[in-house]
Every structure is written in C-alpha cells, then in structure tokens.
Amino acid sequence: MNAISKLSKTSKALATTRRGLIVGATLAGGSLLVGCSMGDIVSFGGKKLDVGAFGPFIKISPDGWVTVINKHQEMGQGNHVGLAAIVAEELDADWTKVRTEAAPANAKLYANTLMGLQGTGGSTAINNSWDQLRAAGATARYMLVHAAALRWKAPARDLTVKDGVITDNATGRSAGYGELVAEAASITPPKTPTLKKPSQFTLIGTDRVRRFDSRDKSTGQERYTQDVHLPNMLTAVVAHPPRFGSKPVSFDDSATRKVPGVVDVVQIPTGVAVVAQTTYAARKGREALKVTWDESKAERRSTDQILAGYKVIAVGKGDPKIKAQVFQTAGDATNAFGGELFETTYDFPYLAHATMEPMNCVAQVDGHKVKLTFASQIPSLDQINAAMIVGCFPGAVEIEVLKAGGSFGRRGNPTSDYMAECVHVAKHVGAGRPVKLVWTREDDMAAGRYRPLTHTTVAIKTDSDGYPAAWRHRIVTQSPAKGLPGQGGLDPSTVEGTKGSPYLKATPVVDGQVYVPDFEVPVLWWRSVGATHTAFAMEHTIDQLARKAGKDPADYRRALYAKAGPEAARHLAVLNLACEKAGWGSPLPAGTARGLAVHESFGTVVAQVAEVTMKDGKPKVGRVVCAIDCGVAIAKDQIAAQMEGGICYGLSAAMYGKMTMKDGVVQETNFDTHPVLRMNEAPTVETYIIPSNNHPTGVGEPGTPVIAPAVANALLALNGTPTTSLPFVKG
Length: 731
Fold this sequence. Notes:
By secondary structure, the protein is of the alpha+beta class. It folds into 4 domains: 7-43, no CATH class; 58-218, 2-Layer Sandwich (Aldehyde Oxidoreductase, domain 4), CATH 3.30.365.10; 225-297 and 359-438, Aldehyde oxidase/xanthine dehydrogenase, molybdopterin binding domain (Aldehyde Oxidoreductase, domain 4, 2-Layer Sandwich), CATH 3.30.365.10; 454-719, Aldehyde Oxidoreductase, domain 4, CATH 3.30.365.10. Helices cover 30% and strands 22% of the residues. It has 19 helices and 26 strands. The strands form 7 sheets. It has a 7-stranded mixed sheet with strand order 9-10-7-17-14-15-16, sandwiched between helices. A 5-stranded mixed sheet has the order 12-20-19-18-13, sandwiched between helices. A 4-stranded mixed sheet has the order 21-22-23-26. α18 (636-656) packs across α19 (704-719).
C-alpha cells in the first residue's frame, strides 16, 4: 500500500513558505528526492534511530532477556507472539525470556515488505515478516556463537545452543546470551545466515507459543490510547456534520463557552472541535454548540434509494459515466447465455467496524515538531498526513505506537481521519500542549467509514451434468481504495474472492464485470475486505447449483475443483478435512442442518461446516468446524483463536449487521440500534490446521467471510429457500 498519491491535492494546505513548498513538493511526488525509496521519503527529516548490534528487530540485555521489536500494530490479533516466535526459533532463545516492544515510526527500518510503507493490514504481518525475522534471528545466533568460539578459542561448529545458552561440548563450558552481548557486537554478521529446516523447529508449531498480553488485558493493566494521561493535557471532541459531504460554515459557541471546563472552540476541516479540561466538559460543550452546515454537496439519499440505483447500474442502465470494468473473462460469451439460466442477486449492507475501542489519539504540536501517542495502524500514512497539516517533514512526526482495542481495518485509512482531527486541534492549541481527541461510540458509528454497500447479480448456464458452462457476474460497489495510487483502473479489493475463483476457472465461459460508483458516503476495507461479500455470492451460488443438479454440495465442489486443476488442491484438502471432522453426511437431530463453504483470502484457504437450527424465528449456530491451510502454523493456539474470533465477527455481521441512512442521516448510532452477537449466541468452534511447510499466509481475516455462506447453505438445506440479502435477521 503506497499512500502518497493524494498528497498533491492536500499540499496546498501547507503554508506558502519556502519550507512549506519544499515539503509539499517532496510529498506530492518525491520530485526533490529522485531515486529515494518510500522509506527514505517518509523518514526524511527525522532523527536517526540507534540500532543495536543485532539490527533493528532484536535487543538482548545483559540479563539474557531478548526483546523483539514488532513493526506491526497489535490490535488484538496476537501477531506479537507469532513474530517473536519466528525470531526465537532461529535464535534458539529461552522462550521464557522473550518479550516484544512496539517499533517506532520509521519506514526505512520497519516497512511492511508487501506494502512499501510501515503498516499493518491485509493479514500480512506474519507473511511479510517470515523471511526477514528468520534472517534476523539466525544472524544474531551466528554472532553470539562466534563470540563464544572466540572467547573459548573453540571451533564454532562444535558449539551447541539451547534456550539461550551456548555450550562447548568438548569442555563443558557454557555461557548465556546475556554474558556474550558485548563480544558479539564485534562479530561481523553473515551476509546469508543459515536457516533451520522445518524439521529442526523446536518452538514454532508447539503449544508453547501463546500470547504474552493475556494477563495484562485481563487485569486492566494494558495501556491503550484512552489510558494516556499527560501533564496539562486537554480533551477534544468534534461536532461532525449530520450528513456525509457536508462542511461547517459557521458556529455559535456562546453557550458552549459557558460550560465549566471548556477552554476553546475551533473549526477544523471536518467539523467543529470543542476543547476542554475533561471529556465530560468537552461533550457537554458540544451539546450546547450550534453549527451551520453547508449541505450543498451532501448525500441526501436513503440506503434503499442507493441500492435501487445499484440495481439499475447492474443491468447496464445507470449513469453512463459509471463504466463497467472487466475483471475476468474466458471463452466467447456472445451466444453462451441462451435458454434456461440460473439467476440470482445478492444485497449486502453497509457495515460499521464497531471496534471495542472507538477512535482516539493524543497529539502534541510545537512549531514543526509533532508527537503522536496512539494506536497507529499505518504509521507512515499518519506521519504523512500529520506533516501535511503542520508543514513539517514526515520523519519529524514522532509516533509512540500503542496497542489498539480492535481495528478490523478502521484505524488505517488514506486520510488518517481521526488522527488528522487531533493534529488540527493540537496545532491550534500549540506550544506542545497535549490534546487527546475522543470519538464517542456515536461518533464512530455515524461519522465513520463503512464496508461498502454491494449488489451482485449472477447468471449461469449449466451443462448436461449440472455444472457451470457459462458464468456471468456483475458487482456494484464503492471502492475502499479511493485516493490511493494506481487506482485509476480496477480496484482489486472490489472483486477479490470472485476473480480467480476455482469455480470460474472450472467454467468454460466467464463474463465478469464490476461497476464502481463514487459518492459521498465514506467506505473503507472491513475485516476480509472484498471477500466479505464475494465469498457469500460464490459459495451460496454453488450450493444452489448443487441442489438444482441433485448433487451433494461437497461432491459438487470436489468435481469443480477437479475441473479447476492443481491450483484448487488446497481447497480440496480443507474441504475434505472439514467434512471429515464435521461428520458430513451423518444424521443430525430433526430441525438441524449442516452448511458448507470454502473460500480463499489473503493466501489462506478456509473451509467451514456450520450446524444450524431455527430458534425463535432466527438462525442458531450451534457448532462450526473449521479447516485452514495457512502454510507454516507458527502459533496454533493463536490461529484457532483467530478462527474463533473471525467466525464470531462474521456471524455477528451476518445475523444483525447493517448501517442504514434515512434522507442521508445514519440511523444506527450505538449498540441499541446496532446489535452484535451475544456470548450465548456464539457457536462452539473447532479448528483443524492442514500441516504445511509452505511460507505462512494470513490468519487475521480469512475466517470471517466463510461463516455467512456456510449458515446460508445450512438454511437452504433446512427450508429450501436461498438467502438473497443480509443480515439474516431483518428489522
């Protein structure tokens, strides 16, 4: 992910000083830094970090403790323990003396190798760090072993290492890593360190790899942004417009300034901020504030009107400016869709991220110096956006990265919206005085960014055996990648999970197109991004085709995977494992049915079998059997936890999730109108992992999109009625 594209637009916000012109030109196109990497540009103007002898990812203290520097945001997914285990495995460290520490914002040292910037997302934390951290651990081990060899004048090949202790087997001498740190610093690191073979792993894949933060979270000791209390700190809340696309024109703050504790009121680009001594005073001041909004460009349609427009677009009769983009074709579609067709449509609502911790940030601005303390998901983006507001170089924006109470995609967005608000206010306050911006739950729900509303149409011609011979697919959805570079063409996230599907590879004729309307409702990637709707459309369609052909849904998929070729081997493996463990085909109590779904996202293939009954007029999911192929399984317990969490998150959205607008005004603003899955509704989840030595892939998101179609397919088996819109529970 590269976030520089939008900056040419926002560079005009900089003061027209020589410094401002240099910063704006640099960020807009990098024209003054020709030949520099993105890491160079984002780090420009910052202080040089002091990297120790073992590189930017490892610190070893004299008492033998190993600290792994985590370049990725920890937002509940537990990546910190997997990343630490990668290092500890190659280092042969004592696992009981390994800890993690959040990396500072520095893209030169800590860039996500799959994004080019420092950031977490797309289930890439383990994936992009695997080779990097293995090499770091193996390099440090080499240096320590050779330091011991030099001290003892013994051949390094004759020394063994276990749990952070190096032993000379010939003499019985031994030394812990902490004792050798100073001497190891003088050892020249190898250019290509020797890595272990998977058969040599003693930590990775074992039950010992469990997260470090459970106790602190359980006892309330974990530090989140809301826990930050700095001397002389102010709190700000923002009055946002009632409709998307509105802007503040003027405000009357006479009553607000009479509220005890209110310090100031300031207009910022996205609304009007009330600054106070306490959160309570800021909120009371906002309640007394009167704002006049410019709604000339506001979105005034209701959600059902937007969806009705989507349906017109899908049949090619919408606004001619909204052009169809081809995402997959095969064969000749000219005469392939004559005669009887299987046809269906699917509607997916806007969804809020609804993180446990709403958006917040602490900022300090003193001239051209910026300090941010918050749960930064994409520090490079946040550095850039803060720099554009203040008029400094991105590297001069210091970020202390805290853990987050959830994100699901919300905290990392092109405009750094809530962080930018905080910086605007802190700049106004000035003198380096800290300002904590707080979004209430209502702010987060009504003024946030949503998973896009999506409409999908499918038309399929089947052959004499009931398998797809021609497949026409239309998707209408907004683009979460709006504003990012390279998005003048097809946004892959709008079609991922459909494009390249084994079902389309198995179909001789394919006609796939997507329409991407653009309007004021802000959208963003939501846990599993495009797969949240494409998995449902593909998997529920397949079950309906199997039913139409009179075939078992599992056997029907097996046949399609065979047609798709070797690339579908992983799909077949998880399908077979899930069916075996779930007892697919075995009898169930009356009124209970099983539903199956298989989907690949972020390089990981997941199959789920859901056992469903109807209770009080709504689905009740009692058991979910999940099979996953994610390459090397570093932390099996954490993989299972992510499948459980992803399934419950996806089930919650499928059961109840929707964000609607009436005349452009958001209707669901808290959990009274936006219900979520309760503990007594959560299913029992069994997770089974395919053994693999392949490069690890993501696990944070792939469990989420599979559950909704699995439940829909169980309901189809129960009552014979397809599900054409979500959520399952209406009203």
